[in-house]
Design brief:
The complex is a heterodimer. By secondary structure, chain A is of the alpha/beta class. In chain A, 47% of the residues lie in helices and 11% in strands. In chain A, α12 (241-258) links the parallel β7 (235-238) and β8. Chain B is mostly helical. Chain B has two domains: 23-118, no CATH class; 124-190, no CATH class. In chain B, α2 (28-38) crosses α4 (65-74) and α8 crosses α11 (181-190). Classes of the chains: A alpha/beta, B mainly alpha.
């Protein structure tokens, strides 16, 4: 463990963050370091694998593939942290299921034995946002204290996404109808966390629907964008690169297919935190975003 | 109601058969399989409709999660697996979150999709993900534009995943092959 780092985790990257929005990866590492959380590379990690597409074909292979990723962190003797709700669904949930279901674990270990691996159930899995919120690890105050460029005067809406908190009875995040904990993390940056209708509605991308019926998927996204526009949000923040892709590239697709234009900047919470900690748009690769973040940046830079 | 009463009189059995719950196309095995794979008490649904009322896909299509729940209860296998609406669930888990019987309708859909793929029924985009993961370890692999952007950020051109450590790929392929998934994807995608 490096100096000044109180906590260190194996950083599970997934696919969309490192391969489409590398600013999410870069900012996660740098912003976490500033609040005493060290993110270590999880060498040889793969796709979580995609819970919608992969799980739909055969849940057993989804369990086994996710377990392989868990084994890599077990070998490091580190808990996993990650920045994507889809990854959370696979990695957290499979870890949880295998810890509590011996029959399932034995089945998975039979397959893993073929590649000389064994799932032991020796680590836990956390979303980075929940670590930020956790007083024992970081907490809202520490996040606020790390801010050097407050996002004062901006209205930022939060999209919580689905697979982090739902189904509520199998998770540990409390209220899933009108949660406020990420809103608190946003207000810690000096922005106003703006409330909007149907906040917990899905972005529309999941379950393989984005690939299966893109118009259906975009129509869900469009409904969210209508509700976000209604309250005058300057930006949308989320904790899931797949939701980010759906809102960001989705706005281009919505304009092409439905003729509706919103130009709402979409920023992962780590990108937003990066901006508030003084990172430049270049250091966040915001030019890779399909929707120009400039109107938002002009309010804070 | 018992399906078999063993009265030893086929005429009587037929007269008193439960025609409403056990239609000729219903399969108890299907109900049981859905229950087993989903790990949820799918047979306990009392059709309140909270699921459909919570569903983001319902207001823009003919997809009704409550209908699929009824099919699970009644064992209407063909009706469930042949319906293209099966693939419109975004798996947002709102229905599961709100179900007053603590059933997970989302997991019922996942179980039905698994059973559909066992019969080689399923959309192509799902299978393409299998091929991508089989070749690179990633469902969304890296590309040159992104490599250049990563470099500018001070990140390695390829992330420290299977992209940088291809020695992990044979293990991943072995897992996928154990379930015959790549073979199935190649076969189905080569059709048409």
């Amino acid at each position: 463990m490096s100096e000044n780092m109180e906590h260190s985790y194996a950083f599970f990257l997934g696919c969309i963050a490192p391969n489409r929005y590398p600013g999410c990866e870069a900012s996660a590492i740098r912003t976490s370091a500033k609040v005493g959380i060290e993110l270590l590379p999880l060498k040889g990690g793969s796709c979580c694998p995609a819970p919608g597409a992969f799980g739909s074909i055969d849940l057993n292979v989804w369990y086994a593939m996710a377990a392989r990723n868990l084994c890599l962190a077990e070998e490091m003797k580190k808990d996993i942290t990650l920045i994507c709700n889809g990854c959370y669904k696979s990695i957290w949930e499979v870890n949880h299921k295998l810890k509590h279901n011996d029959e399932l674990r034995d089945g998975v270990n039979e397959v893993l034995a073929e590649i000389d691996m064994e799932y032991k159930g020796s680590i836990d899995v956390w979303h980075l946002a929940e670590l930020y919120y956790d007083e024992k690890i970081c907490g809202v105050k520490k996040i606020a204290d790390s801010v050097t460029r407050p996002l004062t005067g901006t209205k930022v809406a939060v999209h919580y996404g689905c697979h982090l908190m739902k189904p509520g009875k199998e998770r540990h995040f409390g209220d899933t109808e009108n949660p406020m904990w990420i809103d608190e993390l946003v207000e810690a940056l000096g922005a106003e966390a703006v409330q909007y209708r149907n906040k917990m509605q899905c972005c529309g991308a999941g379950g393989g629907v984005r690939g299966y019926d893109i118009l259906h998927s975009l129509d869900i996204t469009n409904e969210k964008l209508i509700n976000l526009q209604e309250v005058g949000a300057d930006a949308l923040t989320e904790v899931c690169p797949f939701c980010q892709l759906q809102y960001d590239r989705g706005q281009v697709e919505i304009s092409e297919n439905f003729g509706k234009v919103y130009n709402l900047p979409v920023l992962h919470y780590n990108e937003l935190l990066g901006l508030a900690q003084g990172m430049t748009p270049q250091e966040l690769a915001l030019d890779l975003h399909a929707i120009d973040c400039k109107p938002f940046l002009e309010k804070i830079l | 109601m018992a399906v078999e009463k063993n009265y030893g009189n086929s005429e009587l059995e037929n007269k008193l058969r439960d025609r409403y719950y056990y239609t000729s196309d219903s399969s108890k095995d299907f109900s049981d399989e859905v229950r087993k794979i989903s790990g949820t008490i799918s047979h306990m649904c009392y059709q309140c409709g909270t699921c459909t009322g919570s569903c983001p896909s319902a207001p823009r299509s003919s997809y009704r999660i409550r209908v699929f729940m009824r099919r699970a209860v009644l064992g209407l296998e063909d009706e469930a697996l042949m319906d293209p609406d099966l693939w419109l669930c975004t798996t947002c888990y709102s229905c599961t979150d709100r179900c007053p019987r603590d059933i997970a309708p989302t997991d019922v859909i996942m179980a039905m999709r698994n059973l559909a793929f066992r019969k080689d029924i399923g959309p192509r985009n799902f299978l393409k993900t299998v091929q991508l993961i089989y070749s690179s370890g990633h469902g969304v692999p890296n590309n040159d534009v992104n490599r250049a952007a990563r470099e500018k950020l001070g990140l390695p051109r390829d992330p420290p995943t299977t992209h940088s450590y291809p020695e992990f790929m044979p293990g991943i392929r072995k897992i996928i092959d154990h379930y015959g998934l790549k073979e199935q994807a190649d076969k189905l995608l080569s059709e048409e």
